[in-house]
Fold each of these.
Amino acid sequence: MNAKSLYRDTENGKIGGVCAGLAATFGAEVWLVRLLFVSLFLFTGFFLAILIYIIAWLLLEKMPIEKQQQRSIYANHSMKTKPWQQGHTAEKLLDNITAELDDIDQGLQKMENYVISFSFKMDREFKQK
């Protein structure tokens, strides 16, 4: 794993986004990473866990906006494979995709209606002259 793929996810994070960033990098659930950090906090001493978190907060860069947008685009299209994972069931995922395709279809119908309309022909004629 390269160091460039490890970021702080401040959009989904609670304090500094360290746990959310680790979860996104390793493909784990955020609540599981937070649970591991709280366990580290309780069982190894408060100072060590806080020190590790602060160091990670200072060393890790904030997740770029492009990567956050890419994650948000595909967020509705994740299907859970195990009971503890977040995500939608197959039926919910299919409903989301069907709704998005219906929206695309309506947009294409509007575009087609404009292209075959008289106003499109007039606009094209005036732009040519």
Note: The chain has a mean pLDDT of 78.
Amino acid sequence: MKTILPRFDFKSLYKTVVTFLAVALLVTVTACGGSNQTAKIEKVDVDNPSAGKLTELYKPLTPPQGGMNNYSDVDPRVDISKVEAKADRLIKKTDDLVKKDTNPFKEIGKQLDKKGLPERAEDLSKDVSRSAKETADGVAKGTERGFGNLKENTKSFTEDVKSAVGDLKEKVQQQTEDLERSTRKNS
């Protein structure tokens, strides 16, 4: 017993007991103490459920109109009558286009019926000649670019061949020198 008691730490035991008692006192006072309060039940008027409740912090200057936060999204100082008229015109135009038969082949047929055969042939010949000219111009530009590329490639090829021949010449010369040295050593 004399060996156990000196090892036992009374300060930590004291702190633990005091903490436990403080927590127990706090729980007891909170749960059991206080005044005898009961929940207040507000009677709601069936005809006007919002009577007696404060829902607005301030009285709005303008009545709610819809939009963001139940107010108009447009500044009341701006005149939007022109914009609304244009929007109405565009809506009506769109509705008319949807109601119409928008077959593109009928439109082309109507345009062709308005022109006579000579005018159509003339338009076709103009289109063909313009297309042929554009194609010829494109081919000429492509040929010119191809010739330029071929010229550059030939020039770089000749430079590469010259460089390769020079390297080959040096290697052959070095190998002949090595061969002469090895024959001298052997003789």
Note: The chain has five helices and no strands.
Amino acid sequence: MKLKLRGHHLLCLKGFQGYGYDENFVKNMTFINSKRKLPQTIISLCDSADDICSSCPNLIDGICEDKTQNERVISMDLEVLKKLDITKEYSSTELFDKIDEIFNTRGSVSKICFNCKWSEKCLFYQKLSNNR
């Protein structure tokens, strides 16, 4: 299976535990999260609407909510993507191992996860140490 994922969603998937915007979104996120754990899943990276966004009720005309929110989300994506080779397709397990190496403290995700409305429920964010 192939997945197209935007940068910040790589972190969101690591912390996902069944919360979301609506039932359709949660169902899709649960499916994608299960597939991303399989070594045969291939992931291509992007900084625009992806396979998770496709079921988001906040996706309007290909952007997240409005122009301002969409710019914020793209900024989060770019913070993740600048640490990866975006021209490469990744084995999912290889990519998420790399994510674990790069983003392993709260300081390493400060520009990405700061003020995220899901941070209190996000298992990925909660397990990060406060070390810089």
Note: The chain is about 45% helix and 10% strand.
